[in-house]
Amino acid sequence: MIDDLAELKLTLHCFWLLNEQEGQLKYLRGADLRSDEVLLRSLTLDNELRTPAQALADALERATARGTLLKLEIQSGDTEESVEDWYFINTVKGRQTLALVRQGKLEELRRVLPDEARLKVERPNVFALYEQNIGLLTPLIADQLRDLEKSYPPDWIDEAFTIAVAGNKRALRYIQAILKRWETEGKNERTHETRGRDSEADLRRKYIPDEYSDIIIG
Question: What is the reported pTM?
Answer without folding.
Answer: 0.54
